[in-house]
């Protein structure tokens, strides 16, 4: 074996050793070009068919619900809320809670409001496979006149119907509400877009 053959074998062995070292032992990488940029082989975790990336898992833990409040002209406008499925037992109930407490400070700053009296309380929300019963305190009926009462009932109807396909019934202080407020706004139940038709 002459010198050039031995030199060639030496070079091949050296290249192999360097490759193995930088591929498997040196995770820092190697500055090939001497410009401060390092290149390395990254380990990519495998994802089996049942696993999801973390951002998708986060999306699966939340659901967008829609509630209806009023703009500066008294027209109904929908706004979204993010229901955390890991915290809330029911996103429908969460939507009603958000409706009763709306608007947020930011929404108020944009001219949005609500005709639902701020002291209204949710006495109970009962859900089963057939229907949903919402029981509100009598504060829901108080103040504002016929137009305000009509609007607050529409806020509740549109919010309820946007967040379930089940029939929803409104109760006030434990009694099914067929007439709301001193102005006597009539309601047909279950709540739907024709509930306020005369």
Describe what this molecule looks like in 3D.
About 14% of the residues have low confidence. This protein folds into 2 domains: 42 residues, no CATH class; 133 residues, no CATH class. It is built from 5 helices and 8 strands. It is rod-shaped, with a radius of gyration of 32 Å. The strands form 3 sheets. A 4-stranded mixed sheet has the order 3-4-5-6, covered by helices on one side. Strands 1-2 form a two-stranded antiparallel sheet. With 198 residues, it is an alpha+beta fold. Helix content is 33%, strand content 20%. Strand 5 and strand 6 form a beta hairpin.
Q: Can you give keywords for this protein?
A:
single chain, 198 residues, alpha+beta, two-stranded antiparallel sheet, 5 helices, 33% helix, 4-stranded mixed beta sheet, 8 strands, rod-shaped
């Amino acid at each position: 074996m002459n010198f050039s053959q031995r030199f060639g074998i030496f070079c091949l062995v050296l290249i192999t050793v360097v490759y193995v070292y930088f591929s498997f032992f040196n995770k820092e990488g190697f500055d090939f070009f001497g410009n401060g940029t390092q290149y390395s082989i990254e380990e990519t975790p495998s994802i089996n068919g049942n696993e999801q990336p973390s951002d998708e898992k986060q999306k699966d833990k939340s659901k967008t619900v829609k509630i209806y409040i009023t703009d500066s002209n008294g027209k109904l406008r929908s706004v979204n809320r993010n229901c955390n499925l890991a915290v809330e037992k029911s996103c429908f109930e969460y939507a009603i809670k958000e409706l009763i407490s709306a608007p947020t400070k930011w929404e108020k700053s944009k001219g949005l409001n609500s005709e639902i009296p701020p002291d209204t309380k949710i006495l109970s929300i009962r859900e089963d496979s057939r229907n949903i019963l919402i029981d509100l305190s009598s504060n829901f009926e108080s103040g504002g006149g016929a137009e305000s009462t009509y609007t607050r009932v529409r806020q509740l109807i549109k919010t309820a119907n946007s967040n379930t396909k089940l029939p929803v019934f409104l109760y006030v202080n434990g009694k099914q509400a067929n007439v709301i407020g001193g102005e006597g706004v009539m309601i047909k139940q279950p709540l739907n877009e024709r509930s306020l038709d005369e």
